[in-house]
Structure formats: structure tokens, C-alpha cells
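Z., the sequence and structure:
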Amino acid sequence: MPKKKKAVDNTLELKKRKERLAIWSGVIAGLVFSITLWGNEALSLMSAHAADPFARLAMGILPVTALCTFVAWYANRLARAGLSILLWLGAGGLIALFAGHLPFEGLTLFYSLFDPQIAAKVSLPFNAAISTRVLSLVVIVALLAGVSGILFRRMLENASSNTRRSGAVLTMLVWSIFFFGSAWIIHQTLQMPFLRPVEVVNSLVQAKLGNDATPLSADQAAAANMAAIDPVAGLVSEPYRLALMGYDDLVNQTSVLADFSGGWAQCSVLVDRSSGSAVLKAGACVRLAQ
């Protein structure tokens, strides 16, 4: 009589595959979030001649990726789906809180350790207006992470049972959308209001140096208050670097620090609402003591 074939038990292999996919899901989530938030900002800061443009990316990418990886690994081991959702909900809140404090206390610490000249001149307090923005971001990102937690187990089940690599890649892409969206919301809500003043001052400097690819007309220059840089025209030179120096309580007026190879200047940037919409306009630039 022919021998009966033994049934192959794939339980252990499927368990290992799910664990690998869970870990990779966490790594991808952390990387997507970090690169979208701080990598995107770093490129904008670099093009605006900002000092230490990759500081936030360097400080943020490892903690966020490590947290996402741990949460994904641990959530996969939990028996109850509800606990997995709560775990991702909490992780989303922690990530948003960390990302909300990094441009202020985190960057201040970075300057004090690696760029003491700038550290001595900037003040980036985590004030009430910023705290309100960050609190709203914590809620939004936590909810998005919670939704991703709902799909987490289903994604792992589908991906682990799908032997095709394309299926696993597709599920990872869907998974990463939640973290891309969370990072983009933080970027637009929290980072752009402090990035744009640096870009405004960089435009002033570039125009003064004659490097602007599309020079402004006389009317455009007047509207943008290009004359604001005239008091420090003698300092303007290349190379130079810029940094956010400070802001008022409501973040309606910001100050940008300019370092022209050891010649220091401070330029203010105001939010002008006279036209009915918020428009950034350069204020006065003044020399600083060396």
C-alpha cells in the first residue's frame, strides 16, 4: 500500500514570517515619518542657507524608527486586537509629542552642543501658542496611528499568507500612508510657520547679492520690503548661514539670525494681514555685537 504523505505544518513558518513583516512594518513606518517630516524640512533649510539643516533629522530618525519598530513587534505578539490598537494610539501620541518639542528644546540642545555661537544668540521657547498647536497634533496623529493599528493585524495576516513579494510590498505602501500623512500634517502646521521666515530672509540676501534668478521689479521689491536689509548691507556676503532666532508669544513676528562669516545680523519677519490674508513681510535688519 502506498505510504500516506504527512501533512506539512506551516504554523511556525507563518509565525516567523509575520514577525519579520511586523518588524519591517515598524522600520518602514519610522523611516517614512522621519524622512517626510525632517528630511523634507532639511532640504528646504539647506536651499535657504540655514545653519545645521539636518540637525532635526539626525536627532529624530533613530528614536522614532526604534519606537515604531518596537511597537510593531510587540503589537504582533499581543493576543487581543484592541490592545494593539491602544498601543499604536499611544505610540502616535508620543511620536507627535516628540516631534513637537524637537524644533525647540531639541534644537536648542543641539546648538549648545555643536554650534555654541548660534546657541548664545537664539531663544526658542516652547510657549503657550506652540503648546496648543502641538496638543492638537498629538490628538490627530494619535488617531491616525490608532486607525493604522486597526489595519495592522489584517495587513500582517494578508501579507504573511501572500507568497508573492509584490503583495507584501503593496501592503507596506498602504501601511506607510498613515505615517506619511501624519508627518505632512506636522510639517504644515508646526514647521512651515518657522521655516518660511528663514526663506524670506534668504530671498532678501540673495537679492542683495544679485544671485536671484528672477530679480524683483521695483514694485515687487517695495511690496516685499527689500529695503529692510539695507542697514546691514555692508555685512552681506557669501558664505552665510541663517537660523531662526526667536518669536513673539503668538508667533506673529519672528526673528532670523544671519551669520555672514562672523558678521552677525538680526532680521525680523512680520505676518501682514492688511490684505485680508496672512502674508510674510520682512521687517528691519540690524547689526548684532560680535
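The mean pLDDT is 87. The radius of gyration is 24 Å.

Let me know what you think.
H.
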